[in-house]
Amino acid sequence: MTFIPNTFGIRVKADRFLEYDSEEELVTLIRSGAVTSPFLHVGQGSNLLFTKDFPGTVLHSRIDDFEEVDRDGYSVTVRVGAGVVWDDFVEECVTRGWYGAENLSLIPGETGAAAVQNIGAYGTEVKDIIAAIAAIDVQTGESRVFSPVECRYGYRQSIFKQPSYKKFIVTSVYFRLSLTEQYALEYGPLKEIESPSLRKIRDAVISIRREKLPDPAETGSAGSFFMNPIITVSHLNDLQQTWPDIPHYPVPDAETVTYPTEGASASPADCVKVPAGWLIQQCGWRGKSQGRAGVWEKQALVLVNRGGASGEEILSLARSITGSVLEKFGIALQMEVNVF
Ligand code: EPU
Predict the structure, then answer these.
(1) pTM to 2 decimal places
(2) What are the structural domains, with CATH classification, of the chain?
(3) CB of 305 shorter than 6 A to ligand 1
(4) Digit-coded pLDDT (tens) for 123-133
């Protein structure tokens, strides 16, 4: 029996672990009845926390196609297999002189999962370069193509995370990259790059990530454990009485405000985003441990496995942190990581 891949390094098994190399092979598996329910599709498991063995089928794509499907004077469209390692795709774009993926360098995981969770970093989200998603319905084996609008992208959100759409397995992602020079350099340290190029930006992003985040080869983690919470401006004003320097950012208009802490929905203009890492640090958690689970020394948003931690141990630390932040700031942190 194979262990389920996961970057926290938790040793868990599934009743059945199936891998496939093509869309046809996946459809054959489905139609033969091999994909028993419940099922879970994983990439490298870089956003998952397992607290127990998975009582069902775990699927993993090894579809690794990379095909140019369209090109005009300004852009190129490529179809990329869901099993392609995300950072290999970014490197390929940078090497070929295609603009748009470079800020997302070194994010762990695979292409299919990147599109499902709308990965983002340094002012860019993957939705910005997605042209379409090809998926298979695990109940029927039929294929379906989703436009970016149909994917209903938001901050670390897509339709594929909703219960009724979890039956779709992403097999390929179509990306549209620019052939004309354009960069997203709003994020602090990237602003300082002189005469920017794709390679310079990729190198800068890689060095920022290596500085702040644990090396996945050495320390188990799932990147940011919580999402950055959205609170109302009036809540912010209250907090500023005690913490005048609380960092906060505007919420983009297009972003769905899914969890203002007060519960009621509010328009993005009446809300701000607060870095969860700052809140957690203020509660004194940065660098601390609880059992074999810990909070990363250089970025409090990242929970780590200090060695041999169980999923329950990491979840218990997460609950302690959530409790502290709620008590001190009245903000309910939401997990970015999916817990099983
Ligand atoms: N901060 C602290 N203490 C900390 C961490 C952060 O005070 O320990 C404050 C600082 O004010 C800092 C601000 O938070 O200026 C923002 O920190 P950072 O730039 O590291 O980004 P983040 O908001 O903590 C988000 C993403 C990351 C992404 C970075 C860069 C989420 C949940 N996380 O983190 O994504 O790499 O921005 O764009 O949105 C991931 O999703 O796994 C991930 C790593």
Answers:
(1) 0.94
(2) 66-178 (3.30.465.10), 220-339 (3.90.78.10)
(3) no
(4) 999 999 999 99
